[in-house]
Design goal:
The complex is a heterotrimer of chains A (about 100), B (about 475) and C (about 475).
Chain A lengths: L4 H10 L6 H18 L23 E2 L9 H5 L5 E2 L2 E5 L4
Antiparallel strand pairs in A: 2-3
Chain B lengths: L2 E12 L36 E2 H13 L3 E2 L2 E2 L2 E4 L9 E4 L6 E8 L6 E12 L3 E4 L3 E5 L6 E7 L6 H18 L11 E11 L9 E6 L2 H20 L7 E6 L4 E4 L12 E2 L6 E2 L2 H9 L5 H12 L3 H8 L2 H13 L6 H17 L11 H12 L5 H14 L3 H7 L8 H14 L1 H8 L3 H14 L6 H12 L1
Parallel strand pairs in B: 13-14
Antiparallel strand pairs in B: 1-11, 1-12, 3-7, 4-17, 5-6, 5-16, 7-8, 8-11, 9-10, 12-13, 14-15
Helix pairs in contact in B: 2-3, 5-6, 5-7, 9-10, 12-14, 12-15, 13-14, 14-15
Chain C lengths: L7 H9 L5 H19 L20 E4 L27 H8 L3 E2 L38 H8 L6 E5 L5 H7 L2 E4 L19 E6 L2 H11 L29 E5 L9 H16 L3 E5 L7 H16 L17 H12 L2 H14 L5 H24 L2 E5 L15 H6 L5 H6 L3 E8 L5 E7 L5 H13 L11
Parallel strand pairs in C: 1-2, 1-3, 6-7, 6-8
Antiparallel strand pairs in C: 3-5, 4-5, 4-9, 8-10, 9-10
Classes of the chains: A alpha+beta (about 100), B alpha+beta (about 475), C alpha/beta (about 475).
Chain lengths: ~100, ~475, ~475
């Protein structure tokens, strides 16, 4: 199937990735080829088949409501590109 | 009414588990920023979630209390979107196989209970907190990962009052189950509303407006009241309604539109591959059912049956679980079959005392034995009702016995006819007009005269006897 | 022989007998690295003299792929977007290794960025070179781990495998690589690519090392909901050295027209060897093989698009300079991710997006069931499946990186094992005329790693491929 540039732009926005014009061009061609290849899945009749969301037959994995040792704020913020006091800081959100 | 109001409420409830949904960090409120965190709830690379058993139990308990059908095979899905308070930029939630569906709860706005459908109750995790400054926004992830339940009502509510009552019914049940603090101020209960208006009798729903930013039950009611007015005005002038989200401004008491979002959001839900499927076996459901306490409406019916309460009185007493237990304790201890007297005391003076002291009924520091004694004194007419109310207050304050307080306060009701007759003579002489009013047939005059006697006797006169004596004297 | 040229089990013996100390083993590694690393570039970042930063020298050093969290050590998935990230915690496998006295080598192995690739050409730090031919790729995405082991720059290593990322580089570099059963090894601390496919596994000089290392890292982890609570056997006990009467299936779909003729011949010879050793070989069919690559590229990219959403400049890594939040997200990710990463994220986002979910993602999940059922059927009558690891030997650097689809197709033989969740191993079984290694792949049913070690070890001990070393 073909995927037009508008769709790619929309998807790039959903994924929060800014694409340059030449990137968009190249990506369009590449994705076109990949999706064409992926389309062969349409040949199969999967109506009666259950989807394999999980390959393991395990269920009900739970943990007890017990406290563990949390990180210190210092450790939590150690890698932060920008922080203010004990907060992570991001550019102002414009609603 | 020309227009029918249609309201649906979406409530997000924080469960009161000790630890978060997917990690062992504390859920304690009000801690230093970014101190209740770990790689899992921070969404650090490589971290993986494991769900809290207690949260699942609480959720099932709540769903059962609402009469929901529990989904035997349930799973978590990822809700994908970008926001700084969402560390993984996806929220672990539930999409097409939610934990439970098709429940209901009753509201008692009218004489007969009205049934409000509950579409679904599902599991998800909370996001962090943002603090907006001028240049930057600050993020605190303490709240991230706290287990939430999303409770969605059917659009069965038809007035702001019904919505208010729905929230109170909801809170009452949740309190009984003890699965959440239900505190809108602390953010453990949050509510968004959807409201639309349509011509009465119309089948199609009107255009929906989403309301956010209400911080109290009253705020929800006020916001909806404002919206009904606003939308009615617009419809009357033939304005086309557009689907939008509006924020309630409690200061200005109005709703304001949020900048309209670009189209419907695409959350790209898919089953979370990091978590397994959950199979809720019938045996597990039965087991949790046995853990359900008697719910408010059940207790109400029982109070009416066992203690002869009116529906009105029963409703008041069961609204809080602890208060209901306190009340029942009092009723059980009260001797005899007829509990009416105790009921009156609970609904009347005790509730007043609680309100005055800004505490709950069950928090009153009161020896039930002494309360019953006090009531006994009144019943035997050894003390007036008025005096007794004052003694009640002292019982709570001092913890002394009723007997002691009555004696030390010299509150014994005066039933000595001679003593009373003397006071009555004085009152008759001082209130010529009232006397003639009484003789003219005005019923109020008697009450006034009795009141004057009560005043002169510092409330100690036996009012019933006084009334009889005055009548006898003047006739 | 230099110490760094020995296998782990040989060195463990020397340590035990006190013939060698951890320090001298480490020193011989440094010497080797100093000599050939500029040519091979197996390691992502060589910035400090490691001698100063290894705290406690009690055991053998092990080289870790750059996508496994090592507390306090840079873990960047060879991506600009995770620049400088030092995790505040150890992955569970790292914890387990430390408990067994292993020394975590402070330099991490080079890899394709976020494990997206089959050649290690997508690393932010540049490609790794195949020790057997420096103009060729080492395979990917665990190319650094495989090259380091092959060139004795590491004694043994950990890699990760989502669609073949341990096995294919092991094949290209002439070493042993195992992808355990899904759920056998904890993923806690493995920076996720595709959650339902990823597994951490050993890359080693011989099968015995792989058996030892697998035993050290396997086991139930309460921090990983997808890890299985099943006992870990002593895998070294499965090195029996014989395979008489074992029923081996040879899937006909794995010997297709597009495969390299030399590789085909070498594999056929290897199969004959197994026959001579007493195994019973028979053709089998895995009918949905041709759909494996498309299914994989939908599921893996869909999961990856969601797993990589967290890389946004807020809490760690690279952040683009801007005063607007939306721009911060978009530019950080545009500048921080490489081409292949962006391509996969966009493809994955598309597959999950409104209107396409049923046709792509849901459909792929269903075909995945069919692929798994193919294997279940074969394992009813066969003990294991033997096939090539890759349709070709190592290709030249730069040869396929411009053609993503061609690159994806080099995973064609390894992908199915990830989709079915079964364990698979690659061992060296020959060389092309140009002197490039060829790998033999053995697959078994879930949690039957013992079968893999048994067959692989028997083959290995009756051949000399594992003894050869590149001339560096």
């Amino acid at each position: 199937m073909s995927i037009d540039k508008e769709t790619i732009k929309h998807v790039a926005h959903l994924a929060r990735i800014e694409l340059q014009a030449n990137e968009l061009e190249k990506l369009s061609g590449e994705l076109h080829g990949i999706l064409d290849f992926i389309d062969k899945l349409k040949d199969l009749n999967v109506e009666q088949v259950k989807p394999a969301s999980h390959i393991l037959p395990i269920s009900n994995v739970l943990r007890e409501d017990k406290l563990h040792v949390s990180l210190t704020s210092q450790k939590a913020l150690e890698n932060a590109p920008s922080k203010k006091g004990n907060f992570f800081s991001v550019p102002k959100i414009i609603e | 009414m020309k227009y029918q109001t249609v309201i649906g409420l979406e409530v997000h409830l924080q469960l009161n588990t000790k630890t978060k949904a997917f990690c062992g960090c504390s859920t304690d409120f009000g801690k230093a920023p970014n101190s209740n965190v770990c790689p899992v709830c921070l969404g650090f690379p490589g971290a993986l979630p494991v769900y809290n058993r207690q949260a699942l139990n609480s959720a099932i308990k709540l769903a059962l209390a609402f009469g929901c059908q529990i989904q035997e095979h349930t799973k978590f899905d990822r809700k994908n979107y970008f926001y700084p308070d969402l560390p993984k930029n996806y929220q672990i939630s539930q999409f097409d196989l939610p934990l439970s569906r098709n429940g209901f709860l009753n509201i008692y706005t009218y004489e007969k209970p009205k049934r409000i459908g509950i579409t679904r109750v599902h599991l998800e995790e909370d996001a962090g907190k943002l603090i907006h400054e001028t240049e930057v926004s600050l993020v605190d992830f303490n709240r991230t990962g706290i287990p939430l339940l999303e409770i969605v009502s059917e659009p069965d509510l038809n007035s702001p009052q019904e919505a208010f009552d729905y929230l109170n019914s909801l809170k009452s049940i949740i309190e009984y189950l003890d699965v959440s603090d239900c505190d809108m101020e602390k953010g453990s209960l949050r509510c968004d509303a959807n409201i639309s208006l349509r011509l009465s009798g119309a089948k199609e729903l009107g255009v929906k407006t989403e309301l956010k930013n209400m911080n109290s039950f009253k705020g929800v009611k006020d916001a909806l009241t404002f919206e009904v007015k606003r939308q009615t005005q617009l419809l009357e002038i033939g304005q086309e309604m557009v689907q939008e989200t509006r924020l309630w401004d409690a200061q200005k008491q109005l709703t304001l539109t949020m900048r309209t979002k670009e189209g419907a959001k695409d959350y790209r839900y898919f089953p979370d591959p990091d978590l397994t499927v959950f199979i809720i076996a019938p045996s597990m459901i039965e087991q949790i059912k046995t853990q359900l306490p008697e719910l408010p409406h059940e207790k109400m019916r029982r109070f009416i049956k066992e203690y002869g309460l009116t529906e009105y009185d029963a409703k008041i007493l069961v609204s809080s679980k602890n208060d209901a237990e306190f009340a029942e304790n009092c009723l059980q201890k009260y001797p005899g079959q007829d509990k009416k007297e105790m009921v009156n005391w609970l609904i009347g003076p005790l509730l007043s005392e609680a309100n005055l002291r800004k505490v709950k009924l069950h928090e009153l520091n009161l020896e039930k034995k002494e309360l019953i004694n006090l009531i006994g004194f009144v019943q035997r007419q050894e003390i007036s009702y008025l005096s007794a109310k004052a003694v009640l207050s002292q019982l709570i304050d001092t913890g002394k016995s009723a007997q002691d307080l009555i004696q030390s306060g010299n509150l014994q009701q005066v039933s000595n006819t001679d003593a009373l007759k003397q006071i009555i003579e004085t009152v008759i002489q001082e209130n010529v007009k009232s006397v003639s009013d009484f003789k003219a047939g005005k019923a109020n005059a008697l009450m006034y005269l009795v009141g004057q006697v009560m005043k002169k006797s510092s409330g100690k006169a036996n009012p019933k006897l006084v009334g009889e004596l005055i009548r006898g004297r003047l006739n | 022989m230099e110490l760094n040229q020995f296998t782990a089990h040989e060195l463990l013996g020397k340590l035990k007998a006190k013939i060698a100390s951890p320090k001298v083993i480490l020193d011989s590694l440094y010497t080797r690295i100093q000599k050939i690393e500029p040519k091979v570039k197996a390691y992502a970042r060589i910035d400090k003299d490691p001698a100063g930063i290894i705290p406690d020298l009690s055991g053998l050093p092990i080289t870790i792929k750059d996508n496994i969290c090592t507390a306090g050590l840079p873990t960047e998935c060879c991506s600009k977007i995770l620049q400088g990230f030092r995790p505040p915690y150890d992955a569970t496998v790292i914890k387990k290794l430390k408990e067994s006295s292993a020394v975590i080598f402070p330099w991490k192995a080079n890899m394709d960025e976020f494990a997206f690739g089959s050649s290690t050409e997508n690393s932010y730090f540049g490609p790794t070179h195949n020790p057997w031919d420096l103009e060729c790729v080492p395979g990917g995405s665990s190319g650094g781990s495989a090259a380091a082991v092959a060139s004795d720059e590491a004694i043994w290593a950990l890699g990760s495998d989502t669609g073949g990322s341990i096995r294919q580089p092991a094949a290209f570099c002439g070493v042993v690589g195992l992808k355990p059963t899904y759920g056998r090894v904890s993923r806690f601390g493995l920076i996720a690519f595709a959650s339902s496919l990823d597994q951490i596994g050993p890359i080693t000089k011989d099968v015995q090392d792989a058996a030892i290392l697998t035993g050290l890292i396997s086991g139930y982890d309460p921090f990983d909901s997808t890890s299985v609570d099943q006992d870990v056997p002593d895998y070294t006990k499965s090195l029996t050295g014989e395979i008489k009467g074992l029923r081996i299936g040879i899937p006909k779909e794995y010997f297709i027209a597009g495969m390299d003729a030399e590789v085909k011949t070498i594999i056929e010879e290897a199969v004959n060897k197994l026959k001579n050793l007493g195994a019973l070989t028979n053709p089998v069919t895995l009918p949905h093989t041709e759909y494996a690559v498309p299914v994989y590229y939908i599921i893996a990219t869909a999961e990856a698009s969601s797993n990589l959403a967290r890389f946004d400049g807020v809490q760690y890594g690279y952040r683009a300079k801007t005063d607007n939040l939306l721009q911060m997200y978009k530019l950080t990710r545009a500048q921080g991710f490489g081409r292949e990463a962006k391509r996969r994220i966009i493809l994955g986002t598309f597959a999950l997006s409104h209107g396409y979910y049923d046709a792509y993602y849901l459909r792929a999940l269903k075909v995945r069931t069919l692929i798994k059922q193919d294997f279940d059927k074969v394992f009813q009558d066969f003990d294991c499946i033997v096939a090539p690891t890759s349709p070709s030997s190592a290709f030249k650097i730069g040869e396929r990186v411009q053609d993503p689809l061609k690159m994806y197709l080099s995973d064609i033989y390894t992908i199915s094992a990830n989709l079915a969740g079964i364990p698979a191993i690659s061992i060296p079984c020959g060389f092309t005329k140009k002197g490039l290694p060829v790998g033999l792949q053995i697959m078994a049913k879930a949690f039957d790693e013992e079968m893999l070690f048994r067959v692989a070890h028997t083959f290995e001990q009756n051949t000399d491929w594992h003894k050869l070393k590149p001339k560096l």
